[in-house]
C-alpha cells in the first residue's frame, strides 16, 4: 500500500472510486452526486486550490481524499478536507485514517495552518479533528448539520478566530453539499 499526490491524469479512476463507494454506502443518487463532485474536483487539481491524494494497492486506487482552499481576505492558509472515499472492500482496516494522516502531513509541509472538514465527528475525531464553532471559522455556505463542522490546527497555535465568511472553490459552491 502506498500514498501518492494525484494529478488530473487520475481523473477517471478518482471519479469511478467516489461513484462506486458512495453508491454502495448511500445509494445511487448520492453516488451520482459525489461522483460528479469528484469528477469536477479532479479535473481542477492544481496542487494549490485543489489537492488530491490517493492510496494504491498493486497499481489500483483504493482510497482518495481532496483538500480544497478556503479563501479569506487575510492571507491565512486554510484547507477543507472533503470528500473522502475508501473502496468498500478496504473499509474498516485503517486505510482512511492512514491516508488522511498522510494528507495532513503533506499540506502542513505546504504551509497550511488550519484544516476543516464537514462530516461524521465519530470518524474525524480519530484523525485529530474537533468540533468547530462558526464563531471561530464560518462555513462558506449555510450548514444543514452544524455539528459536523470540524477543525484542527496544523501549527502549535490554536485555531484563530476569523471574522469573515470564506469562499470555497467553485466546485463546492452549491447548497446541495452543505
Ligand atoms: C468513512 C471512511 C472514509 C472511513 O475510512 P476507513 O478506512 O473505512 O476507516 P478506518 O479503518 O481508517 O477507521 C475505522 C474507524 O472509523 C470508524 N468509521 C468507519 N467508517 C465510519 C463512518 N462512515 N462513520 C463513522 N465512523 C466510521 C469505525 O468505527 C472505526 O473505528 P474503530 O477503529 O474504533 O472501530 C470509509 O469507510 C468510507 O469511504 N465510507 C463511505 C464514504 C464516506 O462515508 N465518506 C466519508 C464522508 S465524505
Q: How is this structure best described in words?
A:
This protein is α+β, with helices and mostly antiparallel strands. The protein has one domain: Aminopeptidase (3-Layer(aba) Sandwich), CATH 3.40.630.30. It has 4 helices and 7 strands. The chain has a 7-stranded mixed beta sheet with strand order 1-2-3-4-5-7-6. A hairpin with a 7-residue loop joins strand 3 and strand 4 (78-86). The termini are far apart. The model has no long low-confidence stretch (mean pLDDT 97). The chain binds coenzyme A.
Uncertain stretches of 5 or more adjacent residues: none
Shape: globular
- Secondary-structure element series: EHHEEEHEHEE
| Secondary-structure arrangement, i.e. CATH architecture | 3-Layer(aba) Sandwich
| Total beta strands | 7
Portion in strands: 25-35%
- Main sheet characteristics: 7 strands, mixed
Largest sheet, spatial ordering of strands: 1-2-3-4-5-7-6
DSSP helix fraction = 25-40%
Determine the CATH topology.
Aminopeptidase
Mean pLDDT: 97
Condensed summary:
With 178 residues, this protein is α+β, with helices and mostly antiparallel strands. It contains 4 helices and 7 strands; from the N terminus they run E-H-H-E-E-E-H-E-H-E-E.
List keywords for this structure.
binds coenzyme A, alpha+beta, globular, seven-stranded mixed sheet, 4 helices, about 180 residues, Aminopeptidase
Helices and strands, with pairings:
Blueprint: E1 2-6, H1 11-26, H2 28-43, E2 50-57, E3 60-70, E4 78-86, H3 95-109, E5 114-118, H4 121-124, E6 130-131, E7 149-153
Parallel strand pairs: 4-5
Antiparallel strand pairs: 1-2, 2-3, 3-4, 5-7, 6-7
Amino acid at each position: 500500500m502506498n500514498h501518492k499526490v494525484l494529478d488530473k491524469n487520475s481523473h477517471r479512476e478518482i471519479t469511478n472510486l467516489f461513484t462506486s463507494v458512495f453508491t454502495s454506502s448511500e445509494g445511487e443518487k448520492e453516488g451520482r452526486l459525489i461522483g460528479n463532485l469528484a469528477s469536477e474536483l479532479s479535473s481542477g487539481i492544481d496542487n494549490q486550490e485543489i489537492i488530491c491524494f490517493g492510496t494504491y494497492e498493486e497499481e489500483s486506487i483504493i482510497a482518495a481524499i481532496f483538500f480544497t482552499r478556503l479563501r479569506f481576505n487575510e492571507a491565512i492558509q486554510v484547507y477543507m478536507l472533503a470528500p473522502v472515499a475508501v473502496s468498500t472492500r478496504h473499509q474498516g482496516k485503517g486505510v482512511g485514517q492512514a491516508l488522511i494522516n498522510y494528507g495532513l502531513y503533506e499540506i502542513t509541509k505546504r504551509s497550511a495552518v488550519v484544516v476543516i472538514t464537514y462530516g461524521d465527528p465519530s470518524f474525524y475525531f480519530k484523525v485529530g479533528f474537533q468540533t468547530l464553532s462558526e464563531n471561530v471559522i464560518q462555513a462558506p455556505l449555510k450548514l444543514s448539520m452544524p455539528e459536523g463542522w470540524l477543525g484542527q490546527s496544523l501549527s502549535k497555535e490554536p485555531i484563530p478566530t476569523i471574522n469573515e465568511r470564506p469562499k470555497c472553490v467553485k466546485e463546492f459552491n452549491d447548497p446541495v453539499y452543505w
